[in-house]
Fold these 2 entries.
Entry 1:
Amino acid sequence: MSLLAIDALTLAIRGTPLLRGVSLALQPGQTLGLVGESGSGKSLTALAAMGLLPEGATTTGSITFDGRDLLRTPEPQLCRLRGRRIGMIFQEPMTALNPVQPIGDQVAETLRIHTSAPRADAHRIAAEKLARVGLPTDRIPPSRFPHELSGGQRQRVCIAMAVALRPALLIADEPTTALDVTTQMQILRLLKSLVAEEGMALMLITHDLAVVSGLADRVAVMSEGRVVEENATEPLFRAMCHPYTRQLFAASDHRPARTSLPLGAPLLQVDGATRDYALPRTHLFRRRPSFRAVSDVSLTLHQGESVGLVGESGCGKSTLTRAILGLEPLQQGRIHLDGQPVGPGMPPTLRAKVQVVFQDPYGSFNPRHRIARAVAEPFHLLPAPPRGAARRAAVAEALEAVGLTAADMDKYPHEFSGGQRQRLAIARALIIRPALIVLDEAVSALDVSVRARILDLLADLQTRFGLTYLFISHDLAVVRAITDRVLVMQSGRIVEEGPTDRVFDHPSHPYTRALVAATPRIPAHWVPAAPCPNAGVGQQG
Amino acid sequence: MRSLSLLLGGSLVGLFFAAALVSFFWTPHGVEQIAIQLRFLPPSAAHPLGTDHLGRDILSMLMVGARTSIAVAIVAVGMGVALGVPLGLVAAATRGGLIDEIIMRGNDLIFAFPALVIAILITAVFGPSALNAIIAIGIFNTPVFARVTRGAALSLWTLDYIRAARVAGKGRARISVEHILPNIANLLIVQGTIQFSLGILAEAGLSYLGLGAQPPTPSWGRMLADAQTMVALAPHMAIFPGLAIVLTVLGLNLLGDGLRDLLDPRLRRAR
Amino acid sequence: MLRHLAERLLSLGLSLFAASLVVFAVIELVPGDPAAFMLGMGATPEAIAALRRELGLEGTPLTRYLSWAGGMLTGDFGISYTYRVPVSQLVLDRLQVSLPLAAYALLLSTVIALPVGMLAAVRRGSATDMAVMGTTQLGIAVPNFWFAILLVLVFSIKLRWVGAGGFPGWEVGLWRGIGALTLPAVALALPQASILARVMRSAVLETLSQDYMRTARAKGLSRRQAVFRHGFRNALIPVLTILGLQFSFLLAGAIIIENVFFLPGLGRLVFQGITQRDLVVVGSVVMLLVFAVIVVNFLVDIAYALADPRLRRPA
């Protein structure tokens, strides 16, 4: 008998249908990967199984767990199931823990509400569970507060809380999406070992096909509130019967057709750039300590080149970006753009040579300005900006260059989707024809299929306008798809640089090797396009 | 529910504004007309809200008093906005710098002086008057607006469209006016109605103590002070001016709540 | 924590210094010669000069500021122009009324507001919530002195349960003293309780939308358990801020309320000081009120750090 069986589950919130007949089954001890893009209904399916749906949700169908229908189980009994028989962890470890309670107390709470364990015992067991998930008492005592822990450590606390009573089912909703790739690998390994040791079933929800390929026994692909394909992992990847699965797979590893431009003169030169930040005072009468975010970084970008800068959060890539954009000064070193010095006081004519596209498609536009005004904003840098009809014509041209229409210029930002807004941001960067465009995690917030189309657009624009790209990202796959050369940054320093394919295929620095190794990958021989029918058993990992 | 508070609040506020405006041209009786023989009259057809200890018509006094309350509160809020908003914008634009520090410390200092204490200090120097009430409430309002402005502006400064504007070469002052101010205007309008209602309450308190508008200018607080000693004799003298204050303040608060929901696109979309 | 404390103490000292400068400067601005005012029309210039020396009105502004501020620090607030007694004695007498009144009102408003706000948040959208929101909306709009007059009308004049004002002194017994302060405290507490209940409600609702609430529910806590175990303490953080701010409103409110009930407190004292142009009294009492506000805010800061570990041990 299945541990969890979801049958013809439909769900609507205030009349809007969000799940349209989801059926899934999960056997004891099995790992099921639930894959889909945002809005596919994968998280709602999990919340329905937990009985934690938002207010106003109406359901039909059934969710059978341990032989009882959870949709018809009264709330007090659901409370006894949650945490004891079904555990759940969420995407955002930074906010998932109560900030004013020590982590040990939060883990012990799971034990204390479900068992009659005395306080001292609950705390002892909590400390053991924390040690089990990689937070040993001598290094990370249970008396710590969440803010004293890193994101990965906080996610471990969440896991300890969820598995403290050895539930039969653990639901993990995008557990590693907010984490760096090396941390992601550690958390995924931890989940895998917990499943093996405790005999738990795991429902792993993710947007990343590669993550499930290494962990799941079975995979279900969801789209628009339906499960479009469900199978054992390897056969599913090999066959990809459903076109949506194929499309998702193709998009996740999409590499736009690019024609490398002939390299021109050096455009951007960074020499020994160093940037310190003052930290809060530790002592009233001593100097404020400082933190070196960027340390002696040198790099050169040639005209027409596309260069990637990769590194994990906190490595200094954002600080370096701000310095290159001339928004913040350096403590040491120099930056030159087209031979002229870059800094907060640089003249508008020089500023006009570099523009930027940011990550967040929703924060990139002033909600009160029409598109025409927003996209034309960089004209501020020109000594004689076009006015009137000429200005509108220039905006129209920029919009058309990024695949939108001239009619879009009189709309407001909220009328566009995330992908369209990213196109608008590119149009804004493009409108004064800069030599260099800095793309700061420009596709990181997008779903894979939207991301693939934006990458195509970027490749096309580079050829058409002879642009130079500095592509900053934590995502190795994206950098690989769009750059010729890559720089790897760690703790404020560039640790490795070279042609992208060479660096990623044959990394020489230990950190680059760790990054490449930590990136989840679908085993190459599973790919349906590769003609290898039934050739051996694919190894996972 | 929300449109109800907007409607109710709007009508109450509208009523009192209308009363104040009409009082410039017409009141049921003259407010300076003293008729001792008509004193302490309970509500009647000739005097809908009765008369006071000098025989003056309470309805007429309330209408003219609305003028004082509204004028003092509006000017005081205007002063708070005119001083506080620019200070808040500058503080946010120079976040963490010396100017920010000075502005915020100055704010904290003013916060240590309750409005009434400021009024007491001013009155001690210049003597009581409506102008002093305005200045005291205005000084008290300034750090409120500075803080609200700074807080909201700081969260906007981290957004990408502000960074994009900086990459487009726009200076901090220009960004503050072009991008920050329009996006915090809603918040300021809502805060404005709240401060307006607090201003009405503060003006009533000050004139009740005799620190605000001076006789013969009618004011609601003053009317209550007169009524207090005679409350056993003529309760209507205390009840109606108090009701006028409560309904005006209630109206402004409801209006503020309604505006907040109406102007907050986040809330609007959520429904 | 110690560093936080030291920082706050330093800023406390600076605020007091700045506030004392402001008060001193304002009093300096006052036109007229208090010595001449005190001695009346027929005073000789010699007598006025002698009194000026006695009152410490001679010397440069700096030396006068130093002796004024130094006196304050050592508890010597100067001699009242009108009462001709040390101001510290006056203040001490009046504090016996004002301090219990403020504490009584604060206690009332907290004891009423926190449970009510919590209840409204937990039962969001219910009839209880609507009733709480409606009542508090009204409570905020009521000026406390008008409410005080209505209380007197009902309880003293119509029902004759309590006296209409005045204070018999603590000598006549604790309960009679408290009885005399009850109506004033209720009048003071009502608007404050309304504000506090609304703040508490929205603070609890805010915590309900946090991710850690969802985590708590996923652990198996019922909605109610989650609110009480994870909502209350987190909600207290914004509530503390408001409590600190309310203290200054309570002080200001007390000045008015003491006048309504003829209570011999600080508010009456400062008010009489103004009408009699007794600047030593006004300056001292204002300084004392400001001192109280600054110290309470300091205590709120400390309480904040106790409630929020992020301030205690920054990562």
Note: The longest helix of chain C spans residues 223-260.
Entry 2:
Amino acid sequence: MEASLIAENIAHIGSFPITNSILVTWLITLILSISAFFATRKMQAVPTGLQNFYEMIIETAYGVVEDLAHTRAKVFFPYLMTFFLFIITANWLGLLPGFGTIGLNEIEDGKEVFIPLFRSVNSDLNTTLSLALISLVLTHYYSVRYLGIWGYIKHWFSLNPVILFVGLLEIVSEFTKLVSLSLRLFGNIFAGEVVLSTISSMFAFIVPLPFYFLEIIVGFVQAAVFMMLTLVFMVLLSEKHVEEH
Amino acid sequence: MEILNQFGVKPILLLAQIVNFIILLLVLKKFLYKPILRILEERKEKIAESLKNSEEIEKKLAQILESRDKKLEEAAKESKKIIDEAVVSANQIIAESHEKALEQTQKMIAKSEEQMALERDKLHQEIRSELADMVALGLEKTAGKVLTTKDKEELAKSALKDFKS
């Protein structure tokens, strides 16, 4: 088995190509939605099981968001929590044994090629890039909402040439955010996939275990990093500047 | 944009992921975050409230204990006062009744003495008149004459004079 850089097509609906990462994205959405539904179907004052599990996660995450965003926490929280839950579920789902090995052999260009049915979604740049896009759009949307359109523009442009230059640099850095957010996540998870498949193909027993543990940690860390960075960007851009020159 | 192609980035796939994320966001918002954040908030309020309540209860309990102690002390003081007063008044009553009894007995003694004196006088008088009669009778017998009433009286008078002296 060989990890390819591009998600493979497994089907078409009209002209819409369904790649294996799209399929897994739907799977993740389904898993999260159903578990969320069951967690809150019968809310109890004394939580048990799934409700307790989600309460623990949400309480911790909300605490983190509230510490940084204060009054804006309630608005920002759903996006950040969804980033975290989606990314961590995706990462850990991709680590399930045999996840990438279920597939079909198809003839392509006269050669038999293995097409896996599932793919760790964050090892597809489409997924991470779209997440980064959402993150960036949200950041700027809330910046405009909290600062007003004039405050938002003032953040980037000024008549003072030095500050104007800094503002231009910051505009560039906004695009860097997009690249760094998407490529960090993609790189980590894709590299993990490659490492795991390489090690597994070299020696299938015991030896890959430490790498699996490593990938479990990486999966969590990347989800947390994505969430935290988005949170920090949102907070920074939606904060009123105290020192007006 | 060549690099994006190499990574297999297609606008339609990006759009699909974005739409999917929005769907997931809405579903989780409705079914997960809202109910759980609400219940967390409720629980926080409840805990704060019960903490406040318990504090109040403790305060009240302390107050009650304090007032109970105060009341007990007061009651003890009062009962002591009452007992003291009772002892004093009892002593007084006893003394008074003692005095009264003494007085009464003295009165009674005086009265009976008086009565006795009266009785004695009466007895004396009776004896005297009897004696006078007897004397008169004796004189009659010896003198042999009947004394007139005047004589009798005279005799009696003289006899009495003798008797008295």
Note: The beta strands of chain A are 9-13, 16-19, 103-108, 111-116.
